[in-house]
Amino acid sequence: MIEAKNLTKSFGKQLIFKNLNFRINNGEFISLIGPNGSGKTTLVKILMGLESKTSGTLNVAKQTIGYVPQFRNIDLDYPLSIEQFIRLNLKFTFSPKQRQLDNELITTIMEKTHLTQLKNRPLGLASGGEKQKAYLAQALLNEPKILILDESTASLDVEVKMQLMDLVQELNQKYQLTVIFITHDYELTKKYTKRALLFKNKTLEELDVAEVSKKMFEMEG
Amino acid sequence: MFEYEFMQQAFIASTFIAITAGLVGVFVVSRNMSFLSHTLSEIGFAGAAFGILVGISPLAGMILFTLVSSIAVGSLSGEASRREASISAISSLFIGLGILFLSLSAQSSSYATNILFGSIVGISAPEVKQLLILALFVIFIFLIFYKPLAFDSFDHLGAQASGLKTRLLSIIFLITLALSVSIGAQIVGSLLVFVLLTLPAATAKYIVHSVPKMILVSVGLSLAGVWIGLYLAFITNWPVTFFISTFEVLAYFGGLSYKNWKLTH
Ligand SMILES: Nc1ncnc2c1ncn2[C@@H]1O[C@H](COP(=O)(O)OP(=O)(O)OP(=O)(O)O)[C@@H](O)[C@H]1O
Ligand SMILES: [Mg+2]
Which ipTM score applies to this complex? Predict the structure, then answer.
């Protein structure tokens, strides 16, 4: 469970948001929406402890978080294959039994993310969508209880987008995985999430997904 | 050539230097720190000159200077790019200091040449022992931190997201980098130690696609470079550094061509 009370963040003199009050329950599939620069990425970074808050309180139950960041610097020369990239997130082990388990886990996750055929391709040469799938697969590796997707579907074609969202939905339903989905996509918000957190006027509104309108994705500032 | 004791010592020392440089190099390249390793070797030059001036060994002076500056870099916050500009300003200062220290210390200029360009005859048995201990220490650190270091070096954001202490890892890495620069400079010289710290790993990046394989190829290429270099330097009496850098540069372009060939086949 995640609970924020009067959470405020400024970078120096620049106020990003103030007095956020919200609660995200275990097993929820929630979207986080709002215009560019409204503080979505900053908020999830604070949730993960990668960025500090300015004031207010924030309780995040201690659990594994999988994060698929919005930006990643993988250039054309990036050497690791897709499988080796995913494997970075494995813990070191001497135990042959654990290695066996790890290998099985990798195989399953690559199948689920449709990466099996591509596993030996250098990640630098993969397409934008293939990269996103690899990022997701890597984040799923340590079996997180909370999954944060930061615009992870933005560069995907419709079919792959749905495949990935279906997979995330399946994990959400089967294992009560909490999903925080940052997006600028109206259709996906409507189709997959039950509730939305909307950044507006430097604060956050909690909405039922039925109240989410197309207009909310069109406004600026 | 092994009937000469100095050649035995040079051989042992450069074997360990090559192993550490090849290993550390994979992480230098994946962390985009080629530039920093270049600067650290210039700082190392100033450190060695300082060592001569105050009467401690050049190696100790080098370690002192590179360690302090790498920890300083590690505790600087901010974007890498912003860091690069300040690093290069600092490095000019250190080259100047190095030259000053040398001229103050009234040592013969052959000493300076050795530090800058490296030498295979300069190494004594106790120095080889020091190098070995330092090299083994670096390798040991890498064995302990291998997994998290690899994660952080090949995917910094992913490592942060999964909760690794990336700041600490970065400082640990910079310490091993400082040590590798200092020990590598004893044979290949501070001017070219970054050759061993970057080229073999950059080549490996073009031909293999996993961290352990990159380490194998990188260590292999840097071993081949120093062994061939030592042998040719011995029979021709030309500087060892010339042969090492020529070999590594050829290997690099070989690797690059292989990669391009593979892309079209
Ligand atoms: N480290 C930082 N230092 C200073 N300002 C920052 C920093 N990180 C973000 N900001 C500022 O905070 C604001 C919110 O940024 P953030 O990335 O959270 O927006 P976002 O809602 O994720 O936008 P987008 O939809 O474009 O991804 C922006 O104005 C940005 O410039
Ligand atoms: Mg963002």
Answer: 0.87
